[in-house]
Every structure is written in structure tokens, then in C-alpha cells.
Amino acid sequence: MKRILMSRETMLALAIILLTGGIALRFPGFIAPNNLALVFNDTSILIILALGQMAVILTRCIDLSMASNLALCGMVVAMINASFPDVPITALIGLAIVLGSFLGAMNGVLVWKLDIPPIVVTLGTLTIYRGLVFVISGGAWVNAHEMSAAFKALPRSVFAGLPVLSWVAIATIGLAFFAIRRLPLGRSLYAVGGNPHAAVYTGIDVGKTRFVAFSIAGGLSGLAGYLWVSRYAVSYVDIAGGFELSIIAACVIGGVSIAGGIGSVGGAVLGALFLGIINNALPVINVSPFWQMAISGTAIIVAVALNVRSERTKGRIILKRAETLV
Amino acid sequence: MNLQDGVKARFIPDRLNSRLSGHLKSWETLLLAVAVVVFVINSLSSPYFLDAWNLSDASFNFTEKGLIALAMALVIISGEIDLSVAAIIALASTAMGYALQFGVGTAELVAIGLIVGVLCGTFNGVLVTVMGLPSIVATIGTMSLFRGLSFVVLGDKAFNGYPTSFAFFGQGYVYWVITFELVLFAGMAVLFGILLNKTNFGRAIYAIGNNPTAALFSGIRVARVKMILFMLTGLMSGLAAVCLTSRLGSTRPSIATGWELEIVTMVVLGGVSILGGSGTIVGVVIAALIVGMVTFGFGLLNVPGIVMSIFIGLLLISVIALPIVYRRVRKG
Amino acid sequence: MTARPVLTLSAITKSFPGVKALSEVSLSLYPGQVTALVGENGAGKSTLVKVLTGIYQPDGGEILIDGTPVTFATATAASGHGITAIHQETVLFDELSVAENIFIGHAPLTRRGLIDWKKLNSKAHDLLARVGADIDATAPLKELGIANKHLVAIARALSVDAQVVVMDEPTAALSHKEIQELYALVDRLKAEGKAILFISHKFDEIFRLADRFTVFRDGQMVGEGKIADTNSDALVQLMVGREVSQIFPDRTPVVGEPVLTVSGYDHPTEFADIGFTLNKGEILGFYGLVGAGRSEVMQALFGVTKPSKGAMRVDGQIAVIRTPAQAIQHGIVYVPEDRGKQGAVAGLPIFQNVTLPSLSRTSRKGFIKLAEEFALAREYTSRLDLRAASLDQDVANLSGGNQQKVVIAKWLATQPKVIILDEPTKGIDIGSKAAVHSFMAELAAQGLSIIMVSSEIPEIIGMSDRVIVMREGRLVDELAHKDLTAEALVRAAAGIGEVAS
Hints:
The complex is a heterotrimer of chains A (about 325), B (about 325) and C (about 500). Chain B has about 325 residues and is mostly helical. Chain B has helices spanning about 20-25, 25-45, 50-60, 65-75, 85-100, 105-130, 135-155, 170, 180-200, 200-210, 210-215, 220-250, 260-270, 280-300, 305-330, and strands at about 175, 180. Chain B has a single domain (about 50-325), classed as ABC transporter involved in vitamin B12 uptake, BtuC (Orthogonal Bundle), CATH 1.10.3470.10. In chain C, helix 4 (about 115-130) crosses helix 5 (about 145-160).
């Protein structure tokens, strides 16, 4: 019981409740159910991406290319839709996921087979994937009127009171919970990042696990690519520019340790929600939205400082052991 | 305390290879060759390339980023990283623009830019060395914080109206086509080269990057060295902010967006190991030149900057991957 | 005693750069019997465990299971062949639950390939009960103390259905009660017909549990037989070897005034009540089992870890040392045990390694003087008879012995008063060992005071003027002259009053 009460997730959830509660004291409209649903919907894409990033960070890697991957997949499906409106939306979504996974797998192969540090690999693919968006689009925009109605409608259409976009995020959260909890792979992510040396002793292939994590992050980026361009009904080279750092921020705020092996689905989701709430709350409480960036920066620093404090390794405690030996 | 009489030691030469042959096989030589190839291709493909004034203009593609890359190289060699450099530019530039409203002169503007840079660097340094945060996440945080503060001050507005004398830093020429920025970059490159290669401080940076524990055990004050490096990076970012603000003549909070990754790319391309411990200033300077020339060359051919970035990205991965692949193939 | 061996190693060889860890060793394990593997630290026992469990691949030799040759490419392959091990290293994951730690890599799955948590937790519960551990299987591992973690590691080893169980110092972290339960467990495993390889430094448990013994020394098998046919003296003799004593330099110690006096050094978790005096020209040995707190004390003297209280005097003057830089200023230097991590700076050339703590002397106003650096490096490396191609060669490319010489040269170049050597010859070849030893003798003769931490009994006896024995973070004995015998050291370190002999 104490374990659950004191966990990082609980603390973060409390912080979020206090935050929203504080806002609600002066602006009760903020916690109206339909407004909260709006906030969640607005944060859905960040949640999906944060879950992918978490898989990568758990294995002691990092993926800086997710936002570029998103932009590339988004542009590909938007252009296909503009040129061939008859291609079914499900096929486009499938394509976005497959293409995204492939781009993620490219990162994974370079990390796995060539041992290049993940930060260098994804720094490179960040610029390459973003550049490819320009190459295929020639710098042109795909605007709302070029997209088919079905393409744009899917994320907005309401199902059981929530937009499909929200449902996709909920489904992703559910799948992530399930995969982390029930698949051997999910547990391997923790083992590889928590103690790579020991993982070898238990017969886990460290490189391959990292490869899979990158592919998953890529697949989710692809999915987010479709959701982004259809929700905002526009696609251009710079969509989600700089978003890669927000994704990492969501993870870090959610207690995912950059050193690997520590983190939870709940934490990553709450981290993303924290950023989403700040985003949405600022205009409500009449603070300039330009404060958003500074606030999330401060949140990252505070979150990392708290994580480091709780992760600090204990000594080898020879004396304690000696006492128990008597 | 002379033991040499008792021990029959074998003679060990100071150096096995002459310094020349060592240089010939180095990363810097490879980079230089790449630079020459880029230069030749550029000259052949556009008649406008080999023009003194055009080349002079082109130098702006790398001088400001290069200034920061010099300091970033030292930070990365020491095993850390600073992703907040572009945000420091934004905040320093904003501070200068803000001060402008109170009618300060050029000298004060420069001082404000540099001081804000050093303060930001100090903040990073405290987070990393005193609080023990991993630099990669700490500086992602300060990156949002610094640029965020800039947004808070400026919103969607901009500061304009810098004094005419202030324009010299980003638009002035020292002699003929030689810009002030180019001279500044060259001078700083020499200073950083000396700092890294010829001083105890530079030696400490390499030792820390290769093995922080052993460095500490050898009596090196690891935390102090890292603190100074973050402050130095802040200072250089402040300096770059002065140049860039002067060149653009205005400040927006989105100034220098994305530069942090371009600067890191420049440093890694220059042969600095992202894991720390190795790298040279010469390599970083050549890498800066390559990036500048590629940007300019593609620009002349009307290739957009973003396509050029594909090339830089591929270059970054392939220069690191090719030696590894080569070694694997040769081994088996 | 008639059964055929279930597992046989023949002529297994394994080398690492600079050192031959195993040299044509052979070993047989029989069903229903416990074979004790004994030897000093660095004799090759842990390397053998890693070969047996697929972590290392041997360079030569054969592994036979039931007479059939096998190879283990991975850890999974070894456990697939029915070999499981309790490793000395913690092969555990703090962030996972106890049950998961037991089953990671081979968790029970449902028919659809999902982790079956119910089965996993209940099987873990049973295994924990079997090893006599009162631990909640669903608790996160990080909440456990060190003894309970060790029990989890034992449960993990038993989670594999194995014919062969390797136990590498399984009782090192356990309390008396848990040790008794472990013995009962070993007896049960024996009764089930498992072949057990039991590695231990504690003679009482070897004679309590083992049926057979095998002795390793310097990577070679030097003796084996039935435990009933031997006694502790004979085993110590085999472990230590007889001829070794001759290679130590002859010295007539001239011990002078106290140089270093330590009193009342305490640390909240690592050691307590440490006090001793080191004299000029003396070699003071520190002996103890691995984990007795010797390195922790030395690192406190050197300013790496901070004692909670205590005082130190150097040459009669109070010295406050809180950083290595201050220790070096006071003339105290430390050659760490972990050469790779704490000693040599791989990536830097030899001469830069040597001059690293002496940079203020080889520079002017912070600017490096290369010629002086090379001169200083040459002076000290040649004293140690370093073998290298050139002084600007990366230390990473040197053998272990030569790396150690570079590290020692680095410290001598600071012209210290006190040099602390932590396991100075661990894992280096015989030739380099002898060079290090004769050099230590010369240094002492010149008036340098030396503290040598060592787990190698012949080295301790052959080199020290006086030996302090530590156990569980405390000084427990001081031995010199004719009291300084292998048996006395082993007994003091292990805390044995009387050994069954």
C-alpha cells in the first residue's frame, strides 16, 4: 500500500490534481468534463509518441528523430490522399505505421549492428527524415481542400462521447500497458536498460531488444503522423518541428529515467498530460501562452532533479551486513 | 632517489611515428580531403562560387555556429553535452533588445549579451556538477526554460532599432572581404586550440572524458573543470548572440531555432567522439568549413537548405559508420 | 561414488589480453555430489563459472555433458543444457519484482505467448519457500536488503530445471540462520541427484558440505580428490603453493619514525573504528576476504569517500583530506584495484598518464611543456622497466602488467611519502608481478612507506613487514614475524576459531 502511495506516478498524479484544482478554484469551467475531454484529446498525439519514446529510453537509448519521422509519414499519407482520394483510410493508416516502423528500424539497425551511439544516429536521421519531407513534397503544402473528407473526418468523428483521436490514444495506452506487463519483450526492455551486463547473463539479446524498441517508437511516430495531418488538416515540411524534445520532456517529467530501466506507462501518460494541461490552462487563466515553454522547461529540470535524488545509489553497506551476521 | 643504476631498462622512444605520418592518417586529413572535394565540385558547378564577395557572404553560414561549436567540442570531449546553446542565444539577444529600450550603448549591449550567456552557462553548470543531473536532460530543460523566458518577454513581437555602431559585429568588414565574424572565429579557433592542446586545463578535459573516475583519482578537480566548460559555452553562445543579433538587426524569440543540433552535428562531424575523450579543434574548424561550403554551394544551385540538411545528416552517420564497417569487413 | 560424471571439462583454456585466466584446466562433476572449488582470488574460479554458463567461450578444450561434447554460445544455451549458476555478480534488476527477477528470460507463458503472472508469482513463491526465504514475491527487488537479494539470486538459479548447479560463494552475503538453511538446501539438492560445484573461501562449509575438492592456482588445476582424504592445512598448502615463496625479494626492513597515523576512522556504512600507524620505510599489508572493507578504508584515506569521523596525521601534523587532490598534496597516493576504471586513463598516451597528477610540475603558468613531460615519463617508466613501443602509445594497448607499471609510475612521479597499493598484482602475469614486487622493496628501502592491500596470501606474507587483517569493516588482527602464517591469515579473515582438520 505504501509502495503505491509513494510511487512517482502517484506524486505526479497528485501534482496534476493540485494543478487542475488550483485552476478550477478560479475558473471552474476548466474542470468541466467536456473541457477535460478536450484537453485529453489535445494531448493524445503527445501521449502516443511519449509511449514510443519510453520504450526506447527504457533500453538506455534515445530517439531524437520521432518528430521528423512523424512529419515524413504524415506527408506521405497526405500526398497519397490528395492524389488518390479513393485509397481507403485504413490502408493509409497501415502504410503510415509500416513506413514509420521502417524508419525507426533504420535507427535500430545502426544502433544494434554498428554500435553507433543512439543520440548520433537519431540526430542524423532527424535531419534526413525532415529533409525527405521536403524532397517528396517539393516544399509545397497539402491543404485541407486537397484532402478527402474521410481523411480529415476520422480523428474528429465522435464515438461514445469522445473523438476517435482520443480513442486511439486510449487504445495505445491500453496496448502499452498490456505489452509492458504481459509480453516477455516488455520485461526485456527494463532488463536491458536497468542492467545490460546482467541481461546478457539471463540470455537477453541487448542489441535486438533495442532494435525492437526503436521500431516500435517509429511505428507510433508513423501513426501519429497520420493523426497530426488529418487533425490539423494540413501537411507541410515543418509540422511538429522541435516536438522531439517535448516528447522527451513528457517522459522525463513522467519519471522515465534517461539512464534506462526505470519508467512506467502511467508515468509517461501523466507526464504528457501535465504538459497538455499547462498548454491548455494558460489561456484560461489569462496567462500569456508564451509562458508555456518556460514552465515546461522548469518542470523538466525539477522532475530530473527529483528522479536523480531518488535514484542515487546506496553504498555497499558492509557494516550492516556484518551486524546481521552475528 | 635514483634507481636507474639497478634496473636495466629497455629504451622506449618518445614517439614511434613521425608527427607528419600521424597527421596524414588522421581524421582531420580525411575531412580536409572532403572539404577540398566539396570546394572543387562547388567551383565547377557554379560560376558564382569562386567570387570573393560571395565566399565572404557564405562565411556567415558557419561563423556564428562555429563559435559555439568550439566550446561545445570541449564540453563533448569532457563527456557532457549542452543542448541549450541556441536558447541561450535567444535569451541573450532578448536581454540586449530589452536593454535597448533604456537607451544603452553598443558597449553595454555587448556586455549584456556576454553576461547573460555566462549566467545561463553557470546555471547549466550548477545543474550538472552540483546537483548531479545528466547534462543531456538538464540542458533539454534549460533549453525550454531559456527560450521560454525569451518568449515571455517578447511574445510575438520583436526588438528592432539597434544602434548603427552595433551593426559592426555581424555586418562589418575588417579588411576588404574579410568580415569581423570570420576574424573573430579564426581568432577564437586559435585560442581554443591552444587551450585544448597546450594547457593543463585541456589535458584535464581529455582525461575526464576518457575516464572521469581515474581523472578524479589523479587529483583533477573534475566538477570545477566541467563547471568552467559550461560557463565557457555560455560565454560563446552570448558572443554568437551578439554577432547574430547585430547581423539580423532584430531579435525574435525564435532566433537560432534548431541550431543546437546543427552545432552538435558540426562537432561530431569534426571527429569529436560523442562518448567523450577524443577530438580536436582543427577537426571542428574543418567540419564548420564543410558545412558552410555545402550550404553555400547548394544555395547557389538553388537547392533549398533543407535538402542540404539531408546531406549533412547522411555525412554525419556515414563518417561514423564507414570506419566501423571497414574494420568489420577487414576483420572477417 | 561409482557414478559417471554428468559434466566434464577437459583442457579448458581461456585468455584475456595480457593474462591467461585458465590454462588447460579439467574438472568433473558427479550426480549427487558436491565438488568444492577452492583457490585464491584470481586463480580462475570465476572465469571457469563464466565458461560453464555460456558467458565466455573458451579458447580451447572441451565441455562434455553425459559424455557428449557441447558448446554454449549464450547463457540461454547453457541453461538449456541443464546448467544453472548462482553468480557472484548481481545478475538482478532493481526495478523488477522479486518474482520477475527469478524468471526473467524464461517466464512461464500462457498458450498465447503472454506472461502468466499467476503462475509466475506462485512458482516464485514456491521457490522462495524452498530456499527458506521469507520474501514477498511481488515486492520490487530494490526494497530488499543485500541478504534477501542473494536469496533471490539462489531462487533464480533453481528456477531452471538443471542437472548441474554452480554456486559461486553463495553464503558470502548471508547471515548465520540463512546459511544453515542454504546448507539444508544443498543437502536436498544432493539427495535429488544434482551435481553441485561449490565455490567458497570458508573452510568450515567446505568440510561441512563437499564430497570432493578441486584446487586452482594461477589459472591451473593443481590438485583434486575426495574431501575425506584431506584436511585444511593440505588445502591451504595447495592453494598457496610451495615454490612461490622464493620469488619474493629479500629485504632487511629499516623501519623508521611514524609517517601516517590514522585514528578512529568511521564510515556510516562501510567501516568502523579504523586506527593504525604506518612507519617510514615499512610495507604494511592489509589482508581480508573480498568485501571486508579494505578498499573502502584506503579510498577514505585518499579522500575519495569521506569518513564520518576520525583523524589523520602525516609526519605528526594533522591532515584534513577530503579530495584526492588534497591527498596528493599531503604526499599520499593510491594505486586502485580496478585498473581499468580508476587507474589508467585508456585513450590517453603513456606519457600523459604518467604526468597527469604532476602537471603543475611539467608546465609553466598552466601551459604544457612537452619536453619536460616526456622527460618525467621516461624517468619513471624506465625505473619500472616498462615494455612499450613508444611513450605516445595509448595505454589501452598495453598488457595488464604494463598498465599497472604506468599507474605506479604515475604516482611515483608525484614523489609521495605514502603509497597505497590496492591489489597491486591482481590479474597480471608472473614476470610483471616479480618486477612490481622488487620495485616495492626498493621503494621501501629508500624510505617510502607502503600500504599493500592484497588477497593473495603468498604476496602478503612475502612482502609485508606487518599485516593488518580486516573482517566486515573492522580491524580484527595484526600479525608480524613468526605469527604471520597462511593459516593464521585465513583463520583471522574468515573468523574461524578452529577448523575441523
